Amino acid sequence: MSLKGKKQKILITGCLGFIGSHLSEKLCQDGHEVFGIDWMKSSKDRKLINKELLLKYQNFNLIYGDIRLDLPEENFDVVFHLAALAGVRASLDNPVITTDVNLGGTTNIFDWATRGFCPMIIYASSSSVYGVSTDLPFSENATLSFPNSPYAASKIASEVMGSTYCRLFPIRSVGLRFFTVYGPRGREDMAIHKFLKWIDSEEPVTFFGDGSSSRDYTYIDDIVDGIVKSSDFALNKMKDHDHEIFNLGNNSPVSLNELISLIEKTVGKTAILNYLPDQKGDVPTTLADISKPIKEINYNPKTSLDKGLERTWDSIQKNMY
């Protein structure tokens, strides 16, 4: 059985966000009955674009609500839990609300599921859980002892909570550690979106450190494909009480200096760099070991960074975020 086969009734939290809107669109196109929940508290211009796009689908149903309080009292085949207060740096300014939404919201999702509303949860974790670890590439089996922000700590705690609920109750769940996702309709606070717009408008690019830090940038279409394949894995290969973790990255880190050069090429202009010290909460490198998802779910990221940047820039020029 697969999400590409039988029509499923699906709940997506954070449906108007970056990853949530792309996943919602994909599952609507595949013919599923999709219910999306979002609280519309941030990035409102971009979320309004996502809302307009999704409401064109007759099989999409929008619920305004807070995942800590407003989950629907009806049954679903699977929930994709993507809602969160995202951002390492934002969490340093707002650690209490970040923890409340991310851990509290995830706990409520699992508790709601165990009351008979849904047998299967696919939820978003983050590469930030690996923190300042220097044991590269990052493996799902790593000990998570070095979170470098409240956001990272909230995601580690959410994984622990998910695992606990699965041991105690007859549900199954997959946690997905996303590695620096980018693409059309991406978050405005992410580096790629800011750099593309700054370089094009010839504004100084805020440049932290010496440019040697590197990230495992992963294009949105590859992430959505991995999410769907993870749900098929949970549906067909997992049993009740099982809890699994997968990295969804690109296994191809790019330094900040290299990223700037690629964006200069994409936009056709030279960056004006404003060098600043490293920021609190940042980590020097992220690099996903994706051997496990390749083997278990046939995960296959296909989009090169230069091609992904072209598509992202094209979307920005069309005011699609």
Describe the protein's architecture and organization:
The protein has 321 residues and is α/β, with parallel strands linked by helices. 41% of the residues lie in helices and 18% in strands. It contains 10 helices and 13 strands. The strands form 4 sheets. A 7-stranded parallel beta sheet has the order 3-2-1-4-5-6-11, with helices on both faces. Helix 4 runs parallel beside helix 5 (150-168). It is globular, with a radius of gyration of 19 Å.
Radius of gyration: 19 Å
Quaternary status? single chain
Strand residues, percent: 15-25%
Apparent shape: globular
Low-confidence stretches: none
Set down the secondary structure blueprint:
Blueprint: E1 9-13, H1 18-29, E2 33-38, H2 44-54, E3 60-64, E4 78-81, H3 88-93, H4 95-117, E5 120-126, H5 150-168, E6 172-178, E7 181-182, H6 191-200, E8 204-208, E9 214-215, E10 218-219, H7 220-237, E11 243-248, E12 254-255, H8 256-267, E13 272-276, H9 291-297, H10 305-317
Parallel strand pairs: 1-2, 1-4, 2-3, 4-5, 5-6, 6-11, 7-10, 8-13
Antiparallel strand pairs: 9-12
Helix pairs in contact: 1-2, 1-7, 4-5, 6-8, 6-10, 8-10
Short description:
This protein is of the alpha/beta class and 321 residues long. It is built from 10 helices and 13 strands. Helix content is 41%, strand content 18%.
